Amino acid sequence: MKYxxxxxxxxxxxxxxxxxxxxxxxxxxxxxxxxxxxxxxMAVEDDGTIxxxxxxxxxxxxxxxxxxxxxxxxxxxLPYVYIRIAxxxxxxxxxxxxxxxxxxxxxxxxxxxxxxxxxSDFMDMGxxxxxxxxCCSDDGVYxxxxxxxx
Length: 150
What we know:
Structural class: alpha+beta
Shape: globular
Radius of gyration: 20 Å
Largest sheet: 4 strands, antiparallel
Strand order of the largest sheet: 3-4-5-6
Helix content: 10-25%
Strand content: 35-45%
Distance between the termini: 67 Å
C-alpha cells in the first residue's frame, strides 16, 4: 500500500512539474524571422544584456529586442566556425573564432588577430580578472593581454 501511494505521489509531482515548466520556458527557434539552428555560445552582461552566438551570426538581446551584431565583425559574413563569447569583470564583451578576437566595450569594436598561420581555430575562451583573454585550440592555450600574445 505504501509503495502504491509513493508511486501515485511521485507521478503527480512529475506531471505537475512538467506542466508548470512548460509555462515558464520559451523555446526560440528563430530571431527576426530567420531560422538559426542551435546556439554555440552565450553570455550575459551585468545589465542583463544577453549575447548569443550561432554559426555565422551573433545576436544581442536587450529590452526585449534582438539585434544582429554580425556586421560588426571584420570578416562578415562570418565563416562557418564556432564563435565563443565571454564577458569580463570590466564589462567588455569578448568573442573568439578562427585565430581572431573581437572586443566590444559598449561603444567601440576592436579586432585582434593571432598572426601565426599555423594555429588551429580557437575553440573556447575565458577572461581573467586582469582582462587577459585565454583561448584554447587544438595546439594549446594562448594568452592575450590586450597587446601581446603568449
